[in-house]
Amino acid sequence: MKHIQKDDTITIPEGVTVNIKARVVTVTGPRGTLKRDLRHVQADIQRPSKNTIRVIVWQGNRKHVACIRTVCSHIDNLIKGVTKGYEYKMRFVYAHFPISVNINKEEGSVEIRNFLGEKHVRKVFLLPGVDIVQTIGVKDELVLSGNDINSVSQSAASIQQATRVRNKDIRKFLDGVYVSEKGTVVKDL
């Protein structure tokens, strides 16, 4: 069944400017600027007023109408990124061989050593715009932070995937680097 017209609106908070040109959305806020290309989605993105964005789909079937919420979520994530930022915390889990991690800021990479006692050094390159620090107060913890949720979450996933256990029983060998907490850099009160 085709729907003649479906739409959804997003409100823009104070201190954030959103520029839309040919379905390329640019969001600027206190933490920086993010840009997202949404030209692959066949939808109208309009500005009916100064602080609202409206996403419209004409003559859409069920899957096409589902793209409305996806586009709205992407824009919401951009707005949240330039106002609060994203922060992922990762913990090292090991039963016997302690995992050691070296952070190379110049290269933008993380080296994981002694995983399951192996001599092989795993090197993971972080995406641009992602900062990583090893916490001093908490043992065996990494904190990834940045404005773009895609870059931060993909970098965390790449680190987690680098420490997958292969050719062993994964119920017994639970070693790895896992995401323990997801949140924002600017904490809500």
What does this protein look like?
The protein is α+β, with helices and mostly antiparallel strands. The chain has helices spanning 62-83, 149-162; strands at 3-11, 17-21, 24-29, 32-37, 44-49, 52-60, 86-93, 100-104, 109-113, 122-125, 130-134, 141-146, 176-183. The strands form four sheets. Strands 11-12-7-13 form a four-stranded antiparallel sheet, covered by helices on one side. β11 and β12 form a beta hairpin.
How widely separated are the two ends? 45 Å
Work out the radius of gyration: 21 Å
Give the number of helices.
2
Question: Helix/strand/pairing class, anyone?
Answer: alpha+beta
Mean pLDDT: 95
Low-confidence stretches: none
* Overall spatial form: elongated
> How many β-strand runs?
13
Order of helices and strands: EEEEEEHEEEEEEHE
What is the helix fraction of residues, given as a range? 10-25%
Q: What proportion of the residues form beta strands (DSSP E)?
A: 35-45%
Largest sheet: 4 strands, antiparallel
Largest beta sheet: what is the strand line-up?
Answer: 11-12-7-13
Give me some keywords for this one:
three-stranded antiparallel sheet; alpha+beta; 13 strands
